[in-house]
């Protein structure tokens, strides 16, 4: 992974910069000891590491503003960080940057059931937002798999989604307003508790900008009343094509499940060996979950069953109880852990039009033979967000490189069939250099213009998202 | 000018940029009154039309910007699907005719009562192609509903009224159309009670897809309306459950006649209650709980109705009245939708922005349309 050379003049001024930060923040909020900054040298993409110049942990929006104003004046790059769970290296530091972590800002500021919103500081974890309202039967809908650990700040940065986004949308669809600190240190409000914001949809472009346009310290989020109940049905098929066709037919019939999960045979076998959930040994497995009252669940499941039967499933298992529901979900939920038991793996995150599913799975199978690496597939079939897991041996020289090359080919395939490079993990540094597979240089240039406006000195979260050659002149300026 | 395709359009924009000639972008011409008047050569998107891809099984539609909305809705209806956000038709309000286009819907981010449940136009929009002010053809997003590849310029384009680029193609995620729908009706509530009833409905587990209130003066008497959509049996169950829950606000009647339900919500969607008569029309967006105070602040001569559970107020006020001044202190924003050019010029159509945000907006405009030729002045 190529990163720009650190700015020697910044490195040379380390002591003065740390002292300057120390004048802005309490002593325990500035971390500059090399032993301690190592904790911030990577996020969940651990293959790439670099200790930052320093890390700061402000406690208020005003402190964040003061830090950014100082860094802007000093020409110091800033890498914002939530909980550091990015799988794309979105919070990877550079040697000449400081990490600005919002972890200490995690309060619930306002809970408003009548208006169905909650206002939180963005260091709060995703699951604990729901935790703050679930006793009153409300929840926050976006549910990334990392929701126990990931912060709302990072969710906004990456526009995170989850298994239930087919019905409830992703972060951008559930975010009503933010308090934003610009790189110049100005505090501004975008949106609010009302449903639509005035002027250009800056909130929309901020969400998913991977921490490159500003630092979000507070968020107003939409909360929803929990459904009365939910229940899954599991079905197995002899061929991926048939399972794919079944997904389409369910959607076309007007049933809108909250989740449609797809697993292929390698994944099913691995999960079964690990979780012993009683999964059948089939080519493709679908788990479809519906919500509503007991009667509504029955009605929807009956419709889904009728559609599934037209596709000759080899297995059809409708949950009748909470225990059976848990058993159906157990294997799926342990998929990533199960694969980790077998081997090292790389988890990809491409999205495809659902109609291309059989074709893409077939091509991945062929490429798997060409590269000599096994692949297991598990994904959100309702929205086409695939997570192929490529197995490799980290101790075997050359395996990682082969794995990366294979991964890039799969992502390019996703783009070729009308999809995209990343559905929910983000570009970060991981897929930065593949951006030209999806966008022309002109398309990228249009995105860079937005960065120019928000962050004219190009100091926020450097060297992410865009291929280095496309940003070179701006970074040098 | 009426280009036949994107390439021809790009040429026209490039020429106009070179000559510094302003363009007034037009779809079906039904919403030209939104925003400030634009002086410039008319550029019609009517020729850039047609559905380019429709995959019912993937809940995805791609269409060229000039495609009439009717054509799209007919194609979706044939497959039992729809645009989730229920776009408003502005013809009644402006007294215009012509065929609204999908590009116009996106340019103004037009949404209807279902916004409370399904989101706004921008929430269903997943991809755009557009020509910027220098004539460059650009794209962002695509045709898959989950996509975090680069910055989301799709959202930026929605509601930018043609000032950052001329839309040529738009992609949407769709939803199945419901088998049936019902309206729950409570008569006689005051504004505060009505908003409390709507909040109770929207905070229930019964998946409400519309919550509106017509105060006295917009019909026979105050009427609070809640919409449910879905499979027939489910509607029966949820209507009954919600009727029980809302009983404390007053007797609840349930309307199930499909034509009646559809007509009622189309009327709410198109702001029928305020559209006739003289006066200026404002669209006010606030937190639902602030709705009653906001309406009260507008004064007794105002004709208005609530949508979005109280969070959206459509108001017709005496000509020239400064609604923003009246609403000072209530968070949200007010847009002057229908008024004379003089009143629009005096009061401004859009809510003034805080200086840093105004600077960002101006910066974006300068970079996407450096010669200032795309709908100049439309957004003020």
TrEMBL record, chain A:
Residues 48-226 form the FAD-binding PCMH-type domain. PROSITE patterns: FAD_PCMH. SUPFAM superfamilies: FAD-binding/transporter-associated domain-like, FAD-linked oxidases, C-terminal domain. It comes from the Bacteria. Pfam families: FAD-oxidase_C (PF02913), FAD_binding_4 (PF01565). Its cofactor is FAD. GO terms for molecular function: FAD binding; oxidoreductase activity. Keywords: FAD, Flavoprotein, Oxidoreductase. PANTHER family: GLYCOLATE OXIDASE SUBUNIT GLCD. This is FAD-binding protein. It comes from Halovulum dunhuangense. The lineage of its organism: Bacteria, Pseudomonadati, Pseudomonadota, Alphaproteobacteria, Rhodobacterales.
From TrEMBL, chain B:
The keyword Flavoprotein applies. Its EC number is 1.1.99.14. Keywords: FAD, Flavoprotein, Oxidoreductase. Residues 1-177 form the FAD-binding PCMH-type domain. It holds the Pfam family FAD_binding_4. It is an enzyme of class 1 (oxidoreductase). GO terms for molecular function: FAD binding; glycolate dehydrogenase activity. SUPFAM superfamilies: FAD-binding/transporter-associated domain-like, FAD-linked oxidases, C-terminal domain. It comes from Halovulum dunhuangense. This is Glycolate oxidase subunit GlcE. InterPro entries: FAD-bd_PCMH, FAD-bd_PCMH-like_sf, FAD-bd_PCMH_sub2, FAD-linked_Oxase-like_C, Oxid_FAD_bind_N. It comes from the Bacteria.
């Amino acid at each position: 992974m190529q990163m720009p050379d650190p700015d020697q003049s910044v490195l040379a001024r380390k002591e003065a910069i740390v002292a300057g930060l120390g004048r802005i923040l309490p002593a325990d909020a500035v971390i500059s000891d090399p032993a301690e900054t190592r904790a911030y040298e990577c996020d969940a993409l651990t293959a790439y590491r670099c200790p930052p110049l320093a890390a700061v942990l402000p406690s208020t929006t005003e402190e964040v503003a003061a830090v950014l104003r100082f860094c802007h004046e000093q020409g110091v790059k800033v890498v914002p960080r939530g909980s550091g769970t990015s799988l794309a290296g979105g919070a990877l530091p550079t040697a000449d940057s400081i990490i600005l972590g919002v972890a200490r800002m995690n309060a619930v500021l306002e809970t408003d059931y009548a208006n169905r919103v909650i206002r939180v500081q963005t260091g709060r974890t995703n699951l604990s937002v729901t935790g703050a309202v679930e006793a009153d039967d409300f929840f926050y809908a976006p549910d990334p798999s990392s929701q126990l650990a990931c912060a709302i700040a990072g969710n906004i940065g990456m526009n995170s989604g989850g298994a239930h986004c087919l019905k409830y949308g992703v972060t951008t669809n559930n975010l009503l307003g933010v308090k934003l600190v610009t790189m110049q240190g100005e505090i501004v409000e975008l949106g609010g508790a009302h449903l639509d914001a005035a002027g250009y949809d800056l909130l929309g472009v901020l969400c998913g900008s991977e921490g490159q346009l500003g630092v979000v310290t507070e968020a107003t989020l939409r909360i929803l009343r929990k459904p009365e109940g939910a229940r899954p049905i599991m079905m197995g098929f002899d061929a991926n094509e048939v399972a794919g066709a079944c997904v389409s037919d369910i959607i076309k019939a007007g049933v809108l499940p909250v989740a449609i999960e797809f697993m292929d045979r390698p994944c099913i076998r691995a999960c079964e060996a690990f979780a012993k959930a009683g999964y059948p040994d089939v080519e493709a497995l679908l788990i479809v979950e519906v919500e509503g009252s007991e009667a509504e669940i029955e009605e929807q499941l009956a419709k889904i069953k009728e559609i599934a039967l037209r596709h000759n499933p080899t297995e059809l298992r409708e949950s009748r109880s909470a225990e059976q529901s848990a058993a159906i979900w157990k294997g799926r939920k342990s998929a990533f852990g199960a694969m980790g038991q077998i081997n090292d793996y790389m988890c990809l995150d491409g999205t495809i039009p659902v109609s291309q599913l059989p074709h893409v799975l077939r091509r991945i199978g062929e490429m798997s033979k060409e590269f000599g690496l096994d692949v297991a597939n598990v994904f959100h079939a309702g929205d086409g967000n695939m997570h192929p897991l490529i197995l490799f041996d980290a101790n075997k020289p050359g395996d990682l490189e082969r794995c990366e090359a294979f991964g890039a080919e799969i992502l390019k395939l996703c783009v070729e069939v009308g999809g995209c490079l990343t559905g929910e993990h983000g570009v970060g540094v991981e897929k930065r250099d593949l951006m030209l597979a999806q966008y022309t240089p002109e398309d990228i240039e249009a995105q860079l213009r937005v960065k120019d406006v928000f962050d004219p000195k190009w100091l926020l979260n450097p060297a992410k998202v865009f291929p280095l050659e496309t940003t070179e002149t701006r970074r040098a300026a | 000018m009426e280009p036949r395709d994107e390439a021809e359009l790009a040429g026209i924009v490039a020429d106009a940029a070179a000559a510094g000639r302003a363009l007034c972008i037009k779809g079906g011409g039904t919403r030209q009154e939104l925003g400030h008047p634009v002086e410039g050569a008319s550029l019609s998107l009517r020729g850039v039309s047609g559905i380019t891809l429709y995959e019912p099984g993937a809940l995805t539609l791609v269409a060229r910007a000039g495609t009439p909305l009717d054509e799209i809705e007919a194609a979706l209806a044939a497959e039992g699907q729809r645009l989730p956000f229920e776009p408003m038709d502005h013809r009644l309000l402006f007294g215009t005719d012509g065929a609204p286009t999908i590009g116009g819907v996106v340019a103004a981010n037009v949404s209807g009562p279902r916004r409370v449940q399904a989101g706004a136009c921008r929430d269903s929009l997943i991809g755009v192609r557009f020509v910027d002010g220098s004539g460059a053809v650009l794209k962002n997003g695509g045709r898959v509903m989950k996509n975090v590849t680069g910055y989301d310029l799709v959202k930026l384009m929605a509601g930018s009224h043609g000032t950052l680029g001329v839309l040529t193609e738009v992609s949407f995620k769709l939803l199945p159309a419901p088998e049936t729908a019902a309206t729950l009706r409570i008569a006689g509530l005051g504004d505060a009670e009505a908003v409390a009833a709507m909040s109770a409905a929207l905070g229930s587990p019964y998946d409400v897809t519309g919550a509106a209130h017509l105060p006295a003066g917009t019909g026979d008497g105050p009427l609070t309306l809640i919409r449910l959509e879905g499979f027939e049996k489910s509607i029966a169950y949820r209507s009954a459950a919600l009727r029980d829950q809302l009983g404390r606000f007053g007797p609840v009647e349930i309307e199930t006649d499909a034509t009646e339900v559809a007509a009622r919500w189309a009327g709410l969607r198109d702001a029928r209650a305020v559209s006739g008569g003289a006066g200026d029309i404002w669209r006010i967006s606030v937190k639902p709980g602030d709705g009653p105070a906001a309406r009260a602040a507008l004064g007794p001569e105002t004709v208005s109705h609530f949508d979005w559970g109280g969070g959206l107020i459509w108001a017709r006020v005496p000509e020239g009245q400064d609604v923003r001044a009246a609403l000072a202190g209530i968070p949200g924003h007010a847009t002057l939708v229908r008024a004379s050019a003089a009143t629009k010029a005096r009061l401004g159509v859009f809510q003034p922005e805080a200086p840093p945000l105004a600077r960002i907006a101006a910066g974006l405009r300068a970079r996407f349309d450096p010669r200032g030729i795309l709908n100049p002045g439309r957004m003020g």
